[in-house]
Design a protein that fits this description.
Blueprint: E1 9-12, E2 20-26, E3 31-36, E4 41-46, E5 51-56, E6 63-66, E7 72-77, E8 80-85, E9 91-95, E10 105-111, E11 117-122, E12 131-136, E13 144-150, E14 153-159, E15 162-167, E16 172-178, E17 183-190, E18 194-200, E19 205-211, E20 215-222, E21 225-233, E22 239-245, E23 251-256, E24 271-275
Antiparallel strand pairs: 1-24, 2-3, 3-4, 4-5, 6-7, 7-8, 8-9, 10-11, 11-12, 12-13, 14-15, 15-16, 16-17, 18-19, 19-20, 20-21, 22-23, 23-24
Length: 288
């Protein structure tokens, strides 16, 4: 079978994130957006010009995601869910941070196929098992708690009518079924290492970043089954997430982090690109 190959890997730009996360490809502008959660930065990279723009974001912003309006994004931060006009830099509050989650911070976030926003909450010290998953159906609505009792909720992918997510420090990847106001776990897989963010190919391969292990893992999903296939070693210690982008949606962009490393290497925290034999799906868009 075709595999990811290290000889196609390149490091993009000079920026080194404390905690790079949540990469998303904007097909309208042919650009990649991602955040540095701890530094409070939004980064945007245009491969055609090889330019990267860096902007300040609200405290502990974990994601900047696409909406159904060009150049209008949804920002997930500890201060709430915001509408962000990229041209004017204006921010408008769409939804307050869940009151029950005061003192916690957002982590993973993604737009579901139906246009709703999903995001996770967690203890900022990643100790308490007090995090959860939330869904916001549309702008102006209220968040709904879908699942609690999570430690570090990560990865959010939809495949074969199931939701796949991870609880990183429990070393688990879950397959769940979505009900009206809840996630019901159907299958749990204990995995080696710390599963962080993931990308999904059009044919159901889950590519997962393994924090602290310097690798990506590739597994095949089918209904509730996850079959491990192979690993790819990376030159960064803490890969945090990945997504497909580029003109054919076959470039894999990988974020990484320097946070917690006593002696970080020269490219720890960098954005990495790998040319792949796979194809991803266009990113979903939030319904404003």
């Amino acid at each position: 079978m075709d595999r990811l190959r290290i000889n196609s890997l390149s490091c993009i730009g000079d920026y080194r994130a404390q905690l790079g996360e949540t990469p998303v490809w904007c097909d309208r502008s042919a650009s990649l957006l991602w955040v540095d959660i701890l530094a409070g930065k939004l980064l945007r990279y245009w491969p055609q010009t090889q330019c990267t723009e860096i902007r300040d974001m609200p405290v502990l912003t974990s994601a900047v995601l696409l909406t159904d309006q060009p150049e209008i994004f949804v920002v997930v931060s500890q201060s709430g869910i915001w509408r962000y006009d990229y041209a004017s830099r204006a921010k408008t509050l769409l939804c307050p941070w869940p009151e029950a989650e005061n003192g916690k911070r957002p982590n993973e976030a993604a737009i579901a196929p139906d246009g709703s926003l999903w995001f996770s909450t967690m203890d900022p010290k990643a100790i308490a098992i007090s995090g959860g998953w939330y869904r916001l159906d549309a702008a102006g609505g209220e968040t709904k708690k879908m699942l609690g009792a999570q430690q570090v909720p990560n990865t959010l992918q939809w495949h074969d009518d199931y939701v796949w997510f991870a609880d990183s420090l429990r070393h688990q990847i879950h397959c769940a079924k979505e009900a009206t106001n809840a996630l019901t776990i159907q299958q749990t897989y204990c995995v080696p290492g710390i599963p962080d963010g993931s990308a999904l190919t059009t044919d159901g391969l889950l590519i997962n970043a393994r924090w602290g292990s310097s690798l990506l893992t590739v597994a095949a999903l089918k209904k509730t089954t996850m079959t491990p296939l192979y690993d790819l070693q990376l030159p960064v210690c803490q890969p945090s997430s990945c997504t497909f982008g580029g003109p054919e949606l076959s470039d894999l962009f990988i974020t990484s982090a320097r946070d917690g490393l006593l002696s970080p290497g020269s490219i720890d925290g960098a954005l990495i690109n790998i040319k792949t034999p796979y194809t991803g799906k266009p990113a979903n868009r939030f319904r404003l």
